[in-house]
Amino acid sequence: MKLNLQKASGEDGHILVKSMEMEDPTFESATVHVATATFQNPKTSSFDYTAELYLGKTVGTKTVTSGVKTFTVAAGGTKAVAFSVNMPTLTIPSDVYHVYLEIKHLGTLLITFVATDDVTVIVTPAINVTTITWV
Amino acid sequence: MAQFVPSSVHKAIATFKNPKSAGFDYMASLCMGAGWTEMASASFHLDAGQSKAVEFQVTMPSAVGTYPVYFKVTSGGVLIGGFAAEEQVVLAIPSGLIILGVTAQRGADGSISVQIKWTAKGVNWGMYEGGPEDFFVAGAYFGDAASNTWGLYRENVGATVPCGAEVTSGLYFPWDFLTGMGEHPEEAYKYHDFKCQIVLRESWQRWKAYKEYIAVDII
After folding, report:
1. Is this model's pTM higher than 0.90 or not?
2. What secondary structure does DSSP assign to chain A, as a single string?
3. Is the ipTM of this complex over 0.85?
4. CATH says A5-122 is which class?
5. Is B21 in contact with A128 (Cβ distance < 8 A)?
6. How many domains does chain B contain in total?
7. In this predicted model, what pLDDT tens digit does every residue of B23-71 receive, in sequence order?
8. Among A127, A130, A133, A135, the residue to mutate for chain B (most B Cβ within 10 A)
């Protein structure tokens, strides 16, 4: 599915996110899923960037994160970057998280986006039968 | 492979484990037979990673045969698993005399009613060729199991039953019997327990003790 993003903090104009795609927004706890963001550099020079996708309840609170991805986008060019995230290990049947995308240049925060749709993490009930004894 | 007598009551103890990181409520049903006939069910909760032994009281089917055993488990009304037990249950009437149950109850007038359920099949009587023909309760005792004191005895009580049948015999001991064996009436109530002797009759004149003395509380 396509995720729509809006600014959570920072300044516009440094970098654009042309699109962001991920799987179904409901995920099983402790499973790994990948979201892919396509960035565009609106400037006339090439720049190096770092970006981190994380799930959290509030901006800056990183429950789980993809880790920092480093990439370069040429002037006016685009770049697709994949973010792999291990979903939170829940101790309750389900929980809901915001999706944040934080972009920096040389360690300075440029902008943080938040997806307009949240993701739901669930624990699907399961059970095993280990032994049976008759008396 | 577990083997039981048809219609007998047994307990299955199954250990369930929740492999997930969150706790859930479950409903498990023990089923028997190819048609997954539900025999017993239980509700329980398992915390994350927890294992629990869950008991299922099962009255066995009445027909002899081999029965696969299954567990059907739901959580939140959603079926989450069906499991087949490695061992099947065999229902058969084994050779010999099987006591399926004995109950004894004292009436308001002091009388005692006894129900004895038993079955017998395939008994090898060796030298007793030509017989046997039936079983009967040869003796009924009343007393106190704790002290192993069995003071009151009555011979040849109840009707005879054919070999191989599953039978419930009802025995009734009126108050005048209980007080007519040389006991003081007020002492009849000292009998807390009942036991009996069930024998196979080889002929009307000759009978041989086969199974004896099942002590039960008189309620």
Report:
1. no
2. -BPPEEEEEE-TTS-EEEEEE-S-SEEETT-EEEEEEEEE--SSS-EEEEEEEEEESSTT--SEE---EEEEE-TT-EEEEEEEEE----SSSEEEEEEEEEEEETTEEEEEEEESS-EEEE-----EEEEEEE-
3. no
4. mainly beta
5. no
6. 2
7. 999 999 999 999 999 999 999 999 999 999 999 999 999 888 999 999 9
8. A127
